[in-house]
Each structure stands twice: as C-alpha cells, then as structure tokens.
Amino acid sequence: MKRAINVLFICVLVLVSGFFGAVIGASIITQRFEAIPQETKSVPLITAAGQSGGQIQVSLSDISSMIITIVERVEPAVVKVVGEIPGQITFFGMTSDQEVSGSGFIITSDGYIVTNNHVVEDVDTLYVILSDGTEVPAEVVGRDVFADLAILKTDGQMPAVAVLGDSDQLKPGETVIAIGSPLGDFRNSVTVGVISATGRMIDTGQGYEMENLIQTDAAINSGNSGGPLVNLAGEVVGINTLVVRGSGMSSAIAEGLGFAIPSNTALLISQQIIEQGYFARPYLGVQVQHINPDIAARYELSVEWGAYVTRVGANSPAAKAGVQTGDIILRIGEKGLDENTQFLNALFYYQPGDQVEIEVLRGTECEVLKARLEALNI
Fold first, then answer.
1. Tens digits of per-residue pLDDT, 226-259?
2. Given Cys at both, which of 10, 104, 187, 319 links 226, Cβ 3.0 to 4.6 Å?
C-alpha cells in the first residue's frame, strides 16, 4: 500500500510539473513572437496615369493584396488587339478571312500602344478592345521584326497609361505579374510568377536569335502576346512574346518557360517609331546562309561558324565594300560569328552610319573589308 501511494504521488507530481511547464513555455514563446516586429517593405506605387502614388507599407504576409492593388491600377491600360488577315487564293480556291488576336498596352495618353509584331503581321484591318469593352479602330505606325515589336495608334480618350520601368534592374526570383487575353477569349487575365532568368537567347529559325529576353514562369499562353509583364512597383518591365513547350525531336513537354522582351528595348524602339514613323536597323545588303559545324562538315568547309554570302545587293554597303557572292563572313566589327552570335545579331550591335570591318574568308584567304552601314527602315 505504501509503495502504491508513493507511485501515485510521483505520477501526480509529474503531471502537475508538466502542466505548469507547458504554461510557462507557451507564455515565453508568445512574448517572443509578440516582440518580433512584422517585416514590412516600402514600395513606390505608380498610378496608371504615370504619377507617383506615394509609398505604401506592404506586409510580406499580405502580398496578395499588393498584387490586387497593382492590377487594379495597370489593368485599365491593357487592351486586346484584334486583326483580320484577308483570305488568300490557293489551288483549292479562295480561303476565308482569318481573325487573329493578341494583347497590348497603352503607353501615351494620345493613344500609342505597344504589342508584338507577330500579332499584327499581315493583318488588313485592326482594332483594339479597351478595358471597359469599347472597340476602337487602330493602325500600325511602325514595327521592328527582329525585336518582335509593333507600335499601334488609336484615337479617343485613353482609360489609362502604363509606365515603363527599368528592365536592367530585374533580378531572378523577383515577383512579376502578366496581364493579357489568353486564347483570345479570356480578356485581361492575370497570372503571377517570378523572373526565372534574364539575358536569354531564343533561335527564331529565321537566321537570327532574339537576344536579352526575360524568362518567367508566369503563365503565358496564345493571346498573351504583346501584353505587359509588371513588377511589384506597378511598372511594365517586359512585353510577353512567346512560350516554349518543347524543342527538337524530344517528346518532353516543358511548362513555365515564358519569355518577354525587356521594357528598355521596347522604350528605345517605340520612341523612335513615334518620333519618325519607323525604326532604323543597320543594313549591310547581303543574303546569307548560316554555317554551323554540321553544315561545315557536310560541305567540307574550313570554318565551323560563319555566314555564307548567297547574294550581294546592287549598290549596297556590302557591294561598295567589296563583299562577293561565295564569301564567308567571319566577323562584323568586333563581333565574331560563332555558336552564340549569328550574322544579324552581330550586325545589330552597330548603328546606321557606323563604319565597321567585315572579315571574310574568300577561298583559302582571309580578307578584311570596310563597310559603312546604312539604315534599313522596317
């Protein structure tokens, strides 16, 4: 009986000690958590009209409210771009007209709009749908095929104007918001992701690469093309342009590989188009066939990388410099042609009016020629 009483006493003592220990521990933890201030971040809020909205304190645990606020301010500047491609005469007769659509956003209060070139390419008639559903006619002012950008113009009262930010300041991991009209049906849809990487290059399959692209995992689909990619300051830092699902003969399907044109590129091109109606690219005046190690091995060429000249334009900068059909261009200025730099990308490092050296392989001898680049108005 005495042993049983001792055991019972010990059990009661353990329970009471555990209870009071838990109460004291919980009290200490609560006090520590209460002593830690909630982390906040001051973010400049930019209105759609381009005016500073001051500073707002944003809790990191309340990021969704911040995104909602930014979308409410930027979304009125986003438009749906709709065009009609006229029917074509084919072997089977006349095809019907085709409607195409994409996205865009207003960059000036007098109605200039940024979108992708491939959204408006070959269209006959064009109009945009504003955020309130109003349809207004538009026209293409100018475009740059190689950057896949086009500037449209429409008239009337603009509901809002988007602000272009500095895309050079983007960092991987930064939160971004994509706004557009995926599949043409879901107007001004919003998706959220992060900057996956910057400075990406994508081969277009047309003899040049799109350079310095922004990679994001924010969902981008057909119809999002031309829409804005927005940072958490409410600034447009990219123009959504394409998505990669897979490559080559591989059966693997990729997700979350969206790409956008940097806003700094869009700003440079749009300013020139608005001011003079076109964007001038440097022009050499040759048609070339890109050479890589496979082609070099097939045709037993002495170089693995370069651009084989198939045609030289009459009275072109290349003709004046002495470039001949059959030459292999190895270098333009300081940019050698290799696996990372194709012919047009090397050419686009320079401006119309620049005098550059053109290194060519002619037969078995290398020659260095000098050409003054001219403007190619697109």
1. 999 999 999 999 999 988 866 554 555 666 689 9
2. 104
Question: What does CATH list as the number for 44-154?
Answer: 2.40.10.10
N residues, the chain: 378
In this structure, the strands spanning 149-154 and 175-180 are: unpaired
Give the bridge partners for 99, in sequence order. 84
Distance CA 156, CA 174 (A): 36
Give CA–CA dist 171/277, Å, rounded: 33
DSSP 242-265: EE----TT------S-EEEEEHHH
| Spatial separation of the C-alpha atoms in residues 159 and 171, rounded to whole Å | 31
With CA atoms as reference, report the closest residue to 348 among 279, 261, 293.
279
193 with 217: CB under 8 angstroms? yes
**Residues 268-275: contacts with CB under 8 Å, at least 24 apart:** 269/144, 269/147, 269/149, 269/151, 270/107, 270/112, 270/114, 270/149, 270/151, 273/141, 273/142, 273/143, 273/144, 273/151, 274/108, 274/112, 274/141, 274/151
User: Residue 318: is its pLDDT beyond 90?
Assistant: yes
Q: Which CATH superfamily is domain 167-276 in?
A: Trypsin-like serine proteases (2.40.10.10)
Catalytic residues: 118, 148, 225
Helix, strand, coil percentages in the chain from 3-state DSSP, rounded to 5: 25, 40, 35
Instruction: Report helix, strand or coil for 133.
Output: coil
> Do the Cβ atoms of 307 and 288 come closer than 8 Å?
yes
What is the C-alpha to C-alpha distance for residues 304 and 339, in angstroms, rounded to an integer?
9
What pLDDT is attached to residue 16? 60
Q: In the chain, where does the domain assigned CATH 2.40.10.10 lie?
A: 44-154, 167-276
Residues of the chain with CATH 2.30.42.10: 280-377
Q: What are phi and psi of 278, to 5 degrees?
A: -160, 165
Closest CA to 227 of 266, 273, 173, 276: 266
Evaluate whether the domain defined by 280-377 bears CATH number 2.30.42.10.
yes
pTM score of the predicted model: 0.70
